[in-house]
Amino acid sequence: MMQKMQCRVWLFPLGRQVYRVYDSATLELLGHFLGAILLCAISVGQAPLITIVMWGAAQGLVLGLRFMGLQSYREAQQHLHLRQVETQLCPYRWGFSYLVGVFLSGLTWGASVFLLNFSDEPAYHAVLVSGIFVLAGSAVVTLGSIFSLYLLFVLPMVLPVAVWLLLNSDPLYNAMALAALIYVFYTFMAAHSLSSSVQTLHDKNQEILATQREILLRLGRAGEYRDSETGEHIQRMSKSCQLLALQAGLGQTFADKMLYASPMHDVGKIGIADHILLKPGKLSEAERAVMQTHVLIGKNILDGHSCEIMQMASRIAETHHERWDGTGYPYGLAGTEIPLEGRITAICDVFDALTSQRPYKSAWSDARAVAFIREEAGRHFDPVLVGYFLEIIPAIVALRETCSQERDNLGYGNLTTVHPGGLIVPSDSKIFSTADVCA
């Protein structure tokens, strides 16, 4: 069964692999289009016009279908979560559709052998055959990162031409065929090597990214643990940010950045003195002013890094307490002056804080918290984002169960309350700290 699955994956690249060739697909299709025009132009006078037109029409149809598939893939990646794309549209749909398109392109180029049969001009033969094999070599750049795609493009393109050369009675043509086959063999080796290298590099990059994301998550938890909040809060809040970004049509890339950047929204609380951060009771105006500096502390901790996720995390830490009406802090930004990621985090953070049980407060009901979010649209929160948020309330609420299960699976059991000194203690412990829920 495992061997069968591996074979299937080798033949039909998964959606998560196809990005390797989709990045260069536009350039590839443009090259095929210009090459087809050139071939048709040099074939005028060498082959019947109807044959040239039919070949050109077939090439145009294939390129059109491939272009539509490219647009469909890009739109899906922009508006849907990759997992939704794979489960709703079949795990192999994107890889298979691109493979079919590539195979048809190779078949169409291979059909150019019919044009050769109508001409006795050696120069025309040399130009067309050379063009075919140059195209096979250049395809290493655009398709070589997935060997199965390269193979199924080149074989139907090259074999008909090679057979035509071998069947020709002229020894020079036979020699050209052998030289061409040797050339293609080496391009196959190059494509296979490139595909293996890209896969290895991709796997290593994924390991590095996973490590970076884990470090970022734990850095975010460092700030939460000093404020009597649980790891589950940042899990739920960050996944809520991801869902809201997807619902707002901001694309998978942006949503994933939100997932990994938003846990660090309160990392600046590391720099707030214990007698303020852990004060039992309401903060004075002076203490509240000190508490509010955590956003700038967080910005300073995260700022100045070239990593895009760190840059987003810095903006989130700095602006997630700004308000739509301009009454927030630290700068009093209003409306769209507030970075989009800060506006998203503000909604998700407040909703989860309101519906969470804390040692110093009871959890609000979902209905009460939803009513609050709705009432604050246009005052505290971006009204457009609030609309999207309300559409996904069932999914947001469901995170409470899924994140709890993930925590149990990690073996934390009922260790959900954080001691003021930073130690995790059982959830039924009487030791706790207090702070304002939306400080």
Automatic annotation (TrEMBL):
Transmembrane feature ranges: 21-44, 50-73, 94-116, 122-142, 149-167, 173-194
UniProt entry tagged with the keyword Transmembrane: yes
Q: Enumerate the InterPro entries for this protein.
A: Cyclic_di-GMP/3'3'-cGAMP_PDE (IPR052020), HD/PDEase_dom (IPR003607), HD_GYP_dom (IPR037522)
Give all residue intervals belonging to the HD-GYP domain. Answer: 208-405
Q: Which SMART domains match?
A: HDc (SM00471)
| Taxonomy, superkingdom | Bacteria
Keywords, A to Z, come to: Membrane, Transmembrane, Transmembrane helix
One Pfam match? HD_5
Q: Does the keyword Transmembrane helix apply?
A: yes
What protein name applies here? HD domain-containing protein
- Organism the protein comes from: Candidatus Thiothrix anitrata
